[in-house]
Amino acid sequence: TIKVEHLKEKLISQAQEVSRLRSELGGTDLEKHRDLLMVENERLRQEMRRCEAELQELRAKPAGPCPGCEHSQESAQLRDKLSQLQLEMAESKGMLSELNLEVQQKTDRLAEVELRLKDCLAEKAQEEERLSRRLRDSHETIASLRAQSPPVKYVIKTVEVESSKTKQALSESQARNQHLQEQVAMQRQVLKEMEQQLQSSHQLTARLRAQIAMYESELERAHGQMLEEMQSLEEDKNRAIEEAFARAQVEMKAVHENLAGVRTNLLTLQPALRTLTNDYNGLKRQVRGFPLLLQEALRSVKAEIGQAIEEVNSNNQELLRKYRRELQLRKKCHNELVRLKGNIRVIARVRPVTKEDGEGPEATNAVTFDADDDSIIHLLHKGKPVSFELDKVFSPQASQQDVFQEVQALITSCIDGFNVCIFAYGQTGAGKTYTMEGTPENPGINQRALQLLFSEVQEKASDWEYTITVSAAEIYNEVLRDLLGKEPQEKLEIRLCPDGSGQLYVPGLTEFQVQSVDDINKVFEFGHTNRTTEFTNLNEHSSRSHALLIVTVRGMDCSTGLRTTGKLNLVDLAGSERVGKSGAEGSRLREAQHINKSLSALGDVIAALRSRQGHVPFRNSKLTYLLQDSLSGDSKTLMVVQVSPVEKNTSETLYSLKFAERVRSVELGPGLRRAELGSWSSQEHLEWEPACQTPQPSARAHSAPSSGTSSRPGSIRRKLQPSA
Ligand code: ADP
Ligand code: MG
Where is this region: Disordered (predicted)? Predict the structure, then answer.
């Protein structure tokens, strides 16, 4: 019984314990905590929403007065931080919900455990009841047995007899007791297990609590951080706003000041505007009256102009009259000038030093000029300076055009009926051919002269009819050859005109009529080809022969029938160098003798002409004989003495310059005045003929009478003159 009592007590205490545990584990605490957390969560959410709304509002506000300033950058940074924090918060929320879920799971498990505990307890109660019933039964049995105890002494036997039954009952009850005890042990075992379970659930709860506390603190911290961030954001925002406001105020102030300035400006401008408006109105009135004014002005100007034109017209008339008079005067003056200059002029042209001159002391320059006087030339010969005075000296810098300028007047006088001779004199290589022929790019006197004649003739074409013909000949070893003929080898003779006029002509000398530069070029080319095919070494040959270009200009005045003939003789003389007495023999010596003879004859003729001697030795050479009528009378002669400037040629240069000076400084003889007067009757060469008659062969021409009558050059002439 004591044992049973003890068991009962234990059962009760256990039940108490269970109930305590239940009350303790009832989950109410956890639930409460969860609720609290949920409430807290809700509050945080609300706060977050509020913050977001605020942020939205801030964003919606127009950007500060200074977009792109550091504050907007800062606020962007802060916004970024905020979004980061929001992200963190969302994470924390996720964690919280996870924790909530775990708590829920734990609560569920706890409820399960409780249910199982309840079942166990119910089972235990049933068992207890069953046991207590059995205990009562046993007590009753014992009591009934005790009540039967007096007859036991004597009935001992019986009892003993019957005790087998009792014994059996006892053993049965003992067995039952045993069974009960086992059951109690079992129960105890169960209880122990449950206690253990309780223990573990306690531990779990404690762990969970700790976790919850941790999360709470975490949450608290996050919240605090968020609050701090928000605070700083708020501060930044306020600061930015304040700064922007301050700046705006400063700007406003400046704008106000500007405005004030503009206002004062406006005030000062107003009077100016008023005067401008007045001016404008005045101008408007003037413009309205302008057309009338203009018309009036135009009328008066027109009248003035008309008057002026009339005046000019009468002036012009007067001027024209004066001009004509001047023209006549000019002609007179020109003749006088030519007379003063002399009919024979000598100029020198010094060529530049060329590559052909070589190098070294032999090729150094020996010729100098006078800066103030262009008629002086200085030569340093064998260390001795010698000076010469000529009509003009051309330095190496002089161009073909410069030289031509000097001879231009001579050439145009051809059109007026004068005969002209231009000679190029000098040693071989001194530039004779360059001056007369020139190069294709830079032509010399020949081509320029013909070009000038063409243009002059063109100008007079309204009143005069001109024909220009060209012949080319050479004199080599005192033999005259036609360079334009079909048979250049044929010797030509110089004859007296059969008309008894005493004039000379060359029967068979080809004459080409030329009208353009093209024609001249063809003629030159033809002559050149003739010469090249005839002579193997043209250079040497040409340096030992005289080349003549004879241009004849025949004119007729259409209204009066007046005829003129002028002849231009352009002569590239043979080289004037003297051949050493030794060394030269045979043909070379003969050549040299011929050249010498003809050049000295030329010198003699010119000297005789200049000194107005009665006898001029024209017949001493073919050249002077051929040019007789171009050298005598009022003909004009120009001698271009070509000079090489280099040291090695000074002997020849000296000789050439001496020749030039001799030709030039010929003293005028005693018969001067008579002869001079006679030579200046410029009308002498003009012949009067009835207009539009067939031209007669010019009495003064020495060549085959007139163009068209020569039979030999027919084929070539046809080529050059398709119209003839
Ligand atoms: P010439 O006919 O007297 O023998 P050239 O006329 O053949 O001499 O001249 C000899 C060389 O000198 C040629 O090559 C020529 O081109 C050149 N020459 C002559 N005079 C001049 C000049 N004024 N300017 C340039 N080169 C010249
Ligand atoms: Mg030459």
Answer: 685-724
- Within-domain flag for 375: yes
Mutate which of 349, 351, 546 for ligand 1? The one with the most ligand atoms within 8 Å of its CB, which is 351
Give the structural domain span for 353: 344-665
Binding-site residues from annotation for ATP: 426-433
Ligand 1 site, residue 433, Cβ cutoff 6 A: yes
**Is 373 a member of any domain?**
yes
Domain assignment of residue 580, yes or no:
yes
Mark 381-406 as b/e (b = at least 16 C-beta within 10 Å).
eeeeeeebebbbbbbbebebeebbeb
- The reported pTM is 0.52
Contact 391, 345 (CB under 8 A): yes
Q: What is the dihedral of CA 452, 454, 455, 457, to 10 degrees?
A: 120
Q: Distance (Å, rounded) from C-alpha 138 to C-alpha 674?
A: 211
The enclosing domain of 650 has a CATH number of 3.40.850.10
Number of domains in the chain: 1
Q: What is the pLDDT of residues 235-261, one digit of tens each?
A: 999 999 999 999 999 999 999 999 999
- Does residue 576 line the site of ligand 1, with CB under 6 A? no
Long-range contacts at 136-143 (CB < 8 A, ≥ 24 apart): 138/173, 141/169, 141/173
In the reported structure, the alpha carbon of residue 577 is separated from the centroid of ligand 2 by a whole-number distance in angstroms of 12
Task: Scan for tokens 């009066």, then name that residue.
Answer: 560
- Does a structural domain hold residue 443? yes
